[in-house]
Design goal:
2 copies of one chain form a homodimer.
Chain A (H helix, E strand, L loop, with lengths): L1 E2 L18 H17 L6 H7 L4 H7 L3 H24 L5 H12 L8 E2 L2 E2 H11 L9 H6 L4 H17 L6 H21 L12 H17 L1
Parallel strand pairs in A: 1-2
Antiparallel strand pairs in A: 2-3
Helix pairs in contact in A: 1-2, 1-6, 2-3, 4-5, 4-6, 4-8, 5-8, 5-10, 8-9, 9-10
The first copy, chain A, binds a DNA duplex (30 and 30 nucleotides) through helix 3.
DNA sequence: TATAAATAATAGTATTACTATCACAAAAAT
DNA sequence: ATTTTTGTGATAGTAATACTATTATTTATA
């Protein structure tokens, strides 16, 4: 099943909305491919322009820098995760089951929608794991934050927080636990793949399954 | 009290050992100042050369890239943390007290040694929070890891893991919990300062104290 | 059909991340 | 005491990056 998901993303992220033209869509699409391929440090607008058979100048008409483009992609992802979570959790009443499914969704443990808006979700997920912290671990974080470009992330964390509070209304660290679960999902997946001695996935099993089990242990121990 | 701590750091990190000359020490020292000041992205060898009244070429004789220099600094920090932890935990027998003190050490909650080897520990700690993940969140992580430059980090995590196992020998995720505590200490401190709505430090109290309390809650709930 | 908007092509600048060469001074070896 | 080695500073240069500006051409819209 193919589906087209559009989210109204923050206008500070782009100069011209890439959703409104073919070149724009090609930029975002191929940026995901290219960042996945070469990593964010080696990713340049010149290489991206070559990939889409266009010029740097054209890309600069959409995004003022590669950081903005990365943040745009991450914004789309955070909106996507919250949307999918809201859809799938709607029918579930048991908060334990809710949190478990939420963790499964964070981990991309099963694919409901395989192709969305022509974005490759697998590659997008890899980018989120390896590059997402680079969007905010910068000197200008406070100015960027003022432009409200992190509100989809905050909104997603808030959604997770609400599940946490359903499970344990007296828990004093619901926000921190929500952001910790999200960050730890990324860290531990990266460690499991590249620095395995920092994890207990010694059998080198499926990284997702391992991290999913660990996150469950973590979350439910803390909330019990 | 001033103290000089020297650690034998991995030879793959430098071309010439900066400990062996005044310029070398000035490079590392001022790199900490400069990265703290402008952030790793804006940090260049040209700016560093100006700061120490020398030339780019001189710095390149010590470090082949700014990534290597960052990793060198982080290596020193990881060695330092493990050393301090081993010293301070030696007399303590109660594993609960051990873990609590370990978390306090991770958070730099109290300063025993204020100036070490002329490195500014406060600035070093800020760098660790904001920049440490950039040392391994790169495409070349596997090649870099083969050079053993992350072994001080692994060793530090292993030390924390042992405390965890003392507390709960049957715990299945001692390594992951160790790395999670370290990473979460950084994330949550950064969030508390710059994206506070991702934490529960709503009173905007002392970030360290807040994160320290949160880590305690996390660790001891999971291990109970 | 006229007009406006978006794009490709081209050119150019400042900065970055290096590499290479050479001369000089200090330290070490003979 | 004087060679030799070593580290440093000064200078120069290159390829790549991160942009900005200009113009001609295509495409969409009135």
């Amino acid at each position: 099943m193919d589906v087209l998901l559009k989210f109204k993303l923050n206008e500070h992220l782009y100069l011209r909305d890439p959703e409104t033209s073919e070149v724009g869509k090609a930029i975002v699409n191929n940026a995901i491919e290219l960042i996945h391929e070469v990593g964010f440090e080696q990713f340049t607008f010149k290489k991206l322009a070559q990939k889409i058979d266009s010029t740097e100048a054209t890309i600069y008409r959409y995004f003022s820098s590669k950081y903005k483009l990365l943040t745009y992609i991450l914004n789309w992802y955070w909106c996507y995760l919250e949307f999918v979570a809201k859809m799938r959790l709607q029918q579930i009443v048991d908060p334990v089951e809710k949190l478990r499914l939420m963790l499964r969704i964070i981990m991309h443990d099963e694919e409901v929608v395989s192709r969305v808006q022509d974005y490759n979700l697998e590659k997008l997920h890899s980018i989120v794991i390896a590059e997402s912290s680079k969007a905010y671990l910068v000197k200008e974080v406070d100015e960027i934050n003022q432009e409200k470009v992190f509100s989809p992330l905050k909104s997603l964390c808030h959604f997770i927080q609400e599940i946490i509070l359903e499970l344990n209304p007296d828990f004093d660290y619901s926000r921190s636990l929500a952001s910790t679960l999200l960050e730890t999902a990324h860290d531990q997946q990266f460690f499991s793949e590249h620095l395995p001695s920092l994890t207990d996935n010694t059998a080198r099993l499926d990284h997702r399954k391992y991290v999913f089990n660990y996150l469950n242990k973590l979350a439910f121990s803390v909330l019990k």
